Amino acid sequence: MSIQSKLPQVGTTIFTTMSALAQEHQAVNLSQGFPDFKVAEALIKEIDQAMQSGMNQYAPMAGLISLREQISIKTEQLYQYAPHPETEITITAGATEALFDAITTIAHPKDEIIVVEPAYDSYIPAILLSKATPISISLKKDFSVDWEAIKKAINPQTKAIIFNTPHNPTGRIWRKEDMQQLEKVVAENPHLWLISDEVYEHIIFDNETHESVLKYPTLREKSFVISSFGKTYHATGWKIGYCIAPVALTQEFRKVHQFVTFSAHTPTQVALAAYLKNPNHYLELPTFYQERRDYCRTLLSQTPFELLPCEGTYFQTISYAHLSQENDVEYAKRLTREIGVATIPISVFYAHKTDHKVLRVCFAKQNQTLETATERLMKKSHLLAVQ
Ligand code: PMP
Ligand code: GLN
């Protein structure tokens, strides 16, 4: 007897594939996006204390109220808007759960959902599980937003647009002009919802500020805004995220959330609620990561790759289009096997596997890790130009 797949087109994610290949070949793993920096001792102590003091049972379904209050305060300080902790903020098991819940909340069969691509890999499977239709709209060649293509794709069946800024995998950001375009789109199409993936909200460079949809009243009343503590506190394994959405959307969102996980890890929520009171860590994150980005670019500029712009996130994209015509997945795998450096090929984030001959490098790594990767790339640079 064979099981009928609900996701026949889905295999193992590229992150699992590349991390496993990296391990097999003892490659420096710059593929899957996770930091190798230590979590702050004080934050770990808070979790320990929470556990020792007995905070080990289910958290409230919507999340610990003290954490939701802190998120509201942080949101007001950063985006001049205070979502109501009781009715507009929900804590989830990572942004991945929040994305799944938001998509499941709104997607009905026959709905079309616009996905701005290259897109984070969890969006489309969630849309398909709701039997809705993903409509992938590509960023332009320079990875800026193609507003004309988005406008053209909208029709009465279009239920929502999903987008992400700062953007994984390209490292580009949306600016004020993009948000103004989005305001126009929403004004002309009042039937649209928005799902704004802002997990890299604190990792943005060169004195740019993050354009959260929460700053824009006409956008936030239509939006599920999703973030995660994994990126902010160097703790991707903790899987605590959240969703900010207006009351009516949050009510429906929680109906899904309560049957996906019911609630997220209690001691971590207790710890984050205490730790968030001090904004220093997330306010210093742009400087911290800009130093990492600059060092990564300095190192990689010694290799034959072309470095593309990196405005946010902890990902640097590099082009090898002038070096080889090899398919990017094969190229990335070969570099892992033959040079010992694992990266992520960008084509996997496109519905039709568009291959720009671009790889994504995660620079949330100690200097030594980046140096070893660069040394290996330079030592075997003759292998980068193999056709
Ligand atoms: N969205 C994007 C764009 C991401 O890069 C990630 C994880 N790297 C997520 C969502 C998922 O976040 P989490 O680990 O909190 O589930
Ligand atoms: N979001 C991480 C990345 O982009 C990986 C998350 C995962 O492994 N699912 O690399």
Summarize this structure briefly.
The chain is an alpha/beta fold and 387 residues long. It has helices at residues 14-24, 41-52, 65-79, 94-106, 123-129, 147-153, 176-188, 217-220, 229-232, 247-260, 266-275, 280-300, 328-339, 367-379, and strands spanning 28-29, 89-92, 112-117, 133-138, 158-164, 193-197, 223-228, 241-244, 306-307, 315-319, 341-342, 344-345, 358-362.
Write the layout of secondary structure elements.
Blueprint: H1 14-24, E1 28-29, H2 41-52, H3 65-79, E2 89-92, H4 94-106, E3 112-117, H5 123-129, E4 133-138, H6 147-153, E5 158-164, H7 176-188, E6 193-197, H8 217-220, E7 223-228, H9 229-232, E8 241-244, H10 247-260, H11 266-275, H12 280-300, E9 306-307, E10 315-319, H13 328-339, E11 341-342, E12 344-345, E13 358-362, H14 367-379
Parallel strand pairs: 1-11, 3-4, 3-5, 5-6, 6-7
Antiparallel strand pairs: 2-8, 7-8, 9-10, 10-13, 12-13
Helix pairs in contact: 2-11, 3-11, 4-5, 4-10, 12-14
The chain binds 4'-deoxy-4'-aminopyridoxal-5'-phosphate and glutamine.
